[in-house]
Design brief:
Blueprint (H helix, E strand, L loop, with lengths): L7 E7 L2 E2 L13 E2 L2 E7 L3 E5 L5 H14 L2 E6 L11 H8 L2 E3 L2 H13 L4 H4 L18 E4 L2 E9 L6 E6 L4 E5 L17 H14 L4 E4 L10 H18 L6 H11 L6 H11 L2
Parallel strand pairs: 5-6, 6-7, 11-12
Antiparallel strand pairs: 1-4, 2-3, 4-5, 8-9, 9-10, 10-11
């Protein structure tokens, strides 16, 4: 998307891919991974990529997309440690000579996701994930630049996982929000126990205080726009509904059905089912 600034941004959507899970979602859907949003922020010559994808095939598609832009990729920023938002980072960093950047907390979570990769990620997507060494580094004061435009890393704490952050681009009125905000996709509630929903709402408040006009979310229905006000409102509504329904239902299936009835248009009910199972475990 172009703006009045010398900067612009574009979004690549990696479509849902099937998981190596034979059981169907209770509504009959096949188990799928949610669509992924990869953001390219660019100036006249240089660019920054936010949240590279997870599989080799996705990484190659993003590489071709970046090459087609004609821009020089200087940085790859990772918003949080879940592997779907960075496992292809090294593949892209080596290809373009870019530096991988993240917060100290996110780097810790990246190492955790590498540690659980054999028993979790590789079982879901056998043979599909590239080598994923953690090469990310921090930057002073959580800031770096793109052609003299400031890229501001804002740490927001727990959202759908611990130690998450967003990238604020003031000159674009843009926040690239990772999984702090969702856009038309069922939210990942697996790590929402023990105050997780309240912490997530506080993170949303932090993003809202930045007063963005546009938000790119980590998981997005590509048919929807990037309007910040709507995406923030709908993400809060989802968390509030989960909070309200949890004490009203005594099983994961009952909660799942109630949430699905409230949010029938959201993509990937399998993500909701994962969260329901965890919340009632």
């Amino acid at each position: 998307m172009s703006t009045n600034s010398a900067l612009a941004y574009e979004v690549f959507t990696a479509d849902p891919i099937p998981l190596n899970v034979p059981e169907l979602v209770p509504n009959g859907d096949r188990r799928m991974f949610s669509p992924l949003s990869i953001t390219l922020i660019h100036g006249e010559h240089d660019a920054v990529l936010v949240d590279p994808p997870m599989t080799t095939v996705q990484g190659e598609a993003v590489a071709q997309w970046v090459e087609a832009s004609g821009k020089n990729l200087t940085h790859i920023f990772v918003t949080h440690g879940h592997g779907d938002h960075w496992f292809a980072a090294n593949l892209l960093a080596e290809r373009f000579g870019a530096q991988v950047v993240a917060t100290e907390g996110t780097i810790k979570q990246m190492h955790h996701n590498v540690a659980i990769r054999p028993g979790f990620w590789d079982k879901l997507l056998p043979g599909q994930i590239p080598d994923s060494p953690v090469t990310a580094v921090t930057v002073p004061n959580n800031r770096f630049t793109l052609e003299d435009h400031e890229m501001v890393i804002v740490e927001v704490g727990h959202t759908d996982t611990d130690d998450t952050s967003v990238l604020h681009v003031p000159d674009l009125d843009l926040v690239v929000a990772g999984d702090v905000i969702y856009n038309g996709v069922h939210q990942f509630l697996v790590e929402a126990k023990n105050g997780g929903l309240d912490a997530w709402r506080r993170a949303i408040d932090t993003v809202e205080a930045l007063q963005p006009r546009w938000i790119v979310t980590g998981h997005k229905n590509k048919a929807l726009d990037d309007d910040a006000t709507r995406a923030i409102k709908e993400t809060r509504q989802y968390l509030n509904a989960a909070d309200e329904l949890l004490p009203q239902h005594d099983s994961a299936l009952s909660f799942f059905n109630a949430m699905l009835e409230l949010f029938p248009e959201r993509l990937n009910p399998g993500a909701l089912w994962n969260g329901a199972a965890a919340l009632y475990s």
